[in-house]
């Protein structure tokens, strides 16, 4: 706005300067000219024409009169005529002055007839004189003009509303702009993709460095693993669902178990024995197995842990190394990427499947931890408060936190004063009742079973309960497992099974640790299962069927028991693999499959099928069976303690 005003002022100044210059020029010209001041008049063409005609008429009449009355000389007449012509010529140019300008008026030409040659009569002639006059210019009043606009801001009233056509035009323009922008972005994206496709060829040195890099090897392993998982998916594309199945054949097949997987690696499994197996609770397709030393391979690690995948049986997913034989292993219940192992040297190893094959943590070799072989361990507690309980053959029980393996949280030395040779109790297996973390039971090399308290309580001290011990086996206890309470009740929480090298599996009822005996008391088993023909190396309850459990022995037989059907012989007994001794057995979380570790380095997975499905009255039947077994065992005849063996004190 200020700029417009400045521009208008400059234009006005220029106009005034031009007017002043013109006025000065007119004054200069007027001062140099001589004029006769005459009254100003307005020119009228019609009036001038009439005056000229009237003057011509008078001159003609006068000429006629002079010619008829007086003759004159030619010279005098010519002088008069010439003088008249001069006057007429002078009268043709009249200077007219007005207040604002000077106008040179030239009347129309008057035709003067030729005068006759005569001497005119004398007449009155006015005396005329010439002089100089001053021209006076009166300055005109300056009129300032301005634009007749409204001197207000548009924002005070807001912009005028747009018409419908303008709105449509704006929308179309925006659409076109958006389309153009999108097209430009797409073109830019295509250009970038084209540039990416045009890659520079790597040199031979760069290719070798890339192939030998760790990231490339990990990428190849992961990618091939995914492809193998996809290719190993079993699906019968020729199955016909419209065909009626044979019910009788299905009933017969329901009484059998089926081997669905077998894991073995020529490099890592050869000349090794499987010492422990376990399923992953978070990833049910994963199986972990620990192995002892390969005596023929001097430069390989003494102990290894292999992680197998049910969908990829050709090779292990992970190979984990240890400096000592790994005797027991398991997945972490709360962190599935962690794998824990107990070794022959007494170390606790912790591996992370996301890292390399070496353990990320391990316990130190010192007197504050274990210095003897660890055959048994178990994780107890909850997600936010859990511990790893380990037991070694020197009678030491330790409690660990997985993120701090430098020293144990708790340490117990199991000592029994009534031991025949030494006070130390050599522990071979550990078992915790369902939802119990402070009291547990241990199996020993001499065959006895003891109840242990982790912490002192009113009426009892931390350590072994010296008064109560469970006697029934005549050899080392190889396995101990408490009932998992499938129906989430405590009616079977005090039942546990043990296996031993005395060829038997025994069923026990644990005495309440809240009411320990004050004097020495021997607790006998409820029943002894004696169908095996060799050492029984492991036993496990089914997590699904309340009356079902499995056992494996030295003859390579896998036995499935159902106490509600028979307590003398298993319902299924099958030879696994090539008949080699079977060291460990474990159920999956759903109770549908079992994994078995063999002494020849092979791992087998069996599908239990319909046998794993419990009936509605299984709990009632099991209560009845336990009651019958208890009644049979009420007598105090110690001859029945050892089953087929005679007990002598």
Write up what this structure looks like.
The chain is α+β, with helices and mostly antiparallel strands and 649 residues long. Among the domains are: 61-118, no CATH class; 256-640, 7 Propeller (Methylamine Dehydrogenase, Chain H). It is built from 8 helices and 31 strands. The chain has a 5-stranded mixed sheet, with no helix packed on it. A 4-stranded antiparallel sheet has the order 3-31-30-29, with no helix packed on it. Strands 4-5-6-7 form a 4-stranded antiparallel sheet, with no helix packed on it. The chain is rod-shaped. The relative contact order is 0.06. Residues 34-41, 70-81, 87-113, 115-119, 247-253 and 636-649 have low confidence and may be disordered. Keywords: Coiled coil, Cytoplasm, Repeat, WD repeat.
Describe what is shown at a glance:
With 649 residues, the protein is α+β, with helices and mostly antiparallel strands. Helix content is 24%, strand content 26%.
Give a quick set of tags describing it:
649 residues; alpha+beta; Methylamine Dehydrogenase, Chain H; 5-stranded mixed β-sheet; 4-stranded antiparallel β-sheet; cytoplasm; WD40-repeat-containing domain protein; WD40_repeat_dom_sf; coiled coil; WD40/YVTN_repeat-like_dom_sf
List the helices and strands and how they pair.
Elements: H1 2-32, H2 45-69, H3 74-92, E1 94-97, E2 102-105, H4 164-197, H5 204-211, H6 214-231, H7 247-253, E3 258-263, E4 274-279, E5 286-291, E6 303-309, E7 318-322, E8 326-331, E9 338-343, E10 348-352, E11 361-362, E12 374-381, E13 386-392, E14 396-400, E15 410-413, E16 427-431, E17 439-444, E18 449-453, E19 463-470, E20 477-482, E21 495-500, E22 505-509, E23 521-523, E24 527-529, E25 536-541, E26 548-553, E27 557-562, E28 572-575, E29 582-587, E30 593-598, E31 603-607, H8 618-632
Parallel strand pairs: 19-23
Antiparallel strand pairs: 1-2, 3-31, 4-5, 5-6, 6-7, 8-9, 9-10, 10-11, 12-13, 13-14, 14-15, 16-17, 17-18, 18-19, 20-21, 21-22, 22-24, 25-26, 26-27, 27-28, 29-30, 30-31
GO biological process, one term: transport along microtubule
Organism: Gigaspora rosea
Pfam family, one: WD40
């Amino acid at each position: 706005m200020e700029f417009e005003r400045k521009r208008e002022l400059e234009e006005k100044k220029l106009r005034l300067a031009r007017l002043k210059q013109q006025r000065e020029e007119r004054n200069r010209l007027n001062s140099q000219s001589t004029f006769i001041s005459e009254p100003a008049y307005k020119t009228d063409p019609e009036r001038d024409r009439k005056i000229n005609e009237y003057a011509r008429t008078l001159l003609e009449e006068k000429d006629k009169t002079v010619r008829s009355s007086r003759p004159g000389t030619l010279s005098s007449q010519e002088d008069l005529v010439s003088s008249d012509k001069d006057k007429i010529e002078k009268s043709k140019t009249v200077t007219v002055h007005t207040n604002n300008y000077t106008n040179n008026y030239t009347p129309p030409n008057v035709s003067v007839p030729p005068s006759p040659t005569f001497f005119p009569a004398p007449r009155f002639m006015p005396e005329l004189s010439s002089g100089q006059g001053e021209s006076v210019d009166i300055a005109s009043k300056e009129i300032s003009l301005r634009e007749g606009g409204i001197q207000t801001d548009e924002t005070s009233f807001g912009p005028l509303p747009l018409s419908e056509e303008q709105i449509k035009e704006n929308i179309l323009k925006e659409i076109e702009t958006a389309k153009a922008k999108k097209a430009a972005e797409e073109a830019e994206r295509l250009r970038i993709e084209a540039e990416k496709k045009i890659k520079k060829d790597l040199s031979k040195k760069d290719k070798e460095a890339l192939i030998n890099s760790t990231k490339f090897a990990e990428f190849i392993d992961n990618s091939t693993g995914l492809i193998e998982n996809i290719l190993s998916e079993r699906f019968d594309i020729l199955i016909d669902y419209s065909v009626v199945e044979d019910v009788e054949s299905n009933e017969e097949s329901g009484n059998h178990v089926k081997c669905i997987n077998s894991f073995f690696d020529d490099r890592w499994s050869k000349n090794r024995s499987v010492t422990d197996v376990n399923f992953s609770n978070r990833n049910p397709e994963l199986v972990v197995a620990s192995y002892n030393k390969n005596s023929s391979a001097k430069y390989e690690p003494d102990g290894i842990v292999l992680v197998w995948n049910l969908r990829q049986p050709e090779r292990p997913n992970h190979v984990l190394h240890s400096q000592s034989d790994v005797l027991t292993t398991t997945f972490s219940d709360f962190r599935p990427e962690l794998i824990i192992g107990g070794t022959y040297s007494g170390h606790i190893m912790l591996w992370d499947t996301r890292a390399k094959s070496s353990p990320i943590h391990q316990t130190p070799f010192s007197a504050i931890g274990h210095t003897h072989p660890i055959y048994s361990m178990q994780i107890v507690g909850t997600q936010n408060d859990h511990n790893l309980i380990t037991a070694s053959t020197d009678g030491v029980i330790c409690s660990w936190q997985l993120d701090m393996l430098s020293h144990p949280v708790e340490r117990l030395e199991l000592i029994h004063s009534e031991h025949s040779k030494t006070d130390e109790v050599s522990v071979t297996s550990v078992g915790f009742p369902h939802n119990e973390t402070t009291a547990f039971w241990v199996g020993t090399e001499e065959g006895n079973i003891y109840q242990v308290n982790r912490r002192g309580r009113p009426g009892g001290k931390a350590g072994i309960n010296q008064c109560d011990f469970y006697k029934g086996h005549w050899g080392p206890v190889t396995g101990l497992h408490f009932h998992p309470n499938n129906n989430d009740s405590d009616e079977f929480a005090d039942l546990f099974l043990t296996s031993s090298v005395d060829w038997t599996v025994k069923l026990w009822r644990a005495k309440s640790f809240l009411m320990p005996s004050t004097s020495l008391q021997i607790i006998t088993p409820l029943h002894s299962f004696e169908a095996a023909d060799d050492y029984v190396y492991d036993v496990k309850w089914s997590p699904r069927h309340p009356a079902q459990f499995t056992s494996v022995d030295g003859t390579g037989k896998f036995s499935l028991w159902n106490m509600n059907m028979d307590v003398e012989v298993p319902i299924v007994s099958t030879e696994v693999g090539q008949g080699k001794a079977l060291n460990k057995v474990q159920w999956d979380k759903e109770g549908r499959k079992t994994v078995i570790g063999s002494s020849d380095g092979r791992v087998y997975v069996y599908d239990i099928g319909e046998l794993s499905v419990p009936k509605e009255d299984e709990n009632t039947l099991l209560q009845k069976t336990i009651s019958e077994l208890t009644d049979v065992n009420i007598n105090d005849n110690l001859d029945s303690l050892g089953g087929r063996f005679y007990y002598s004190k």
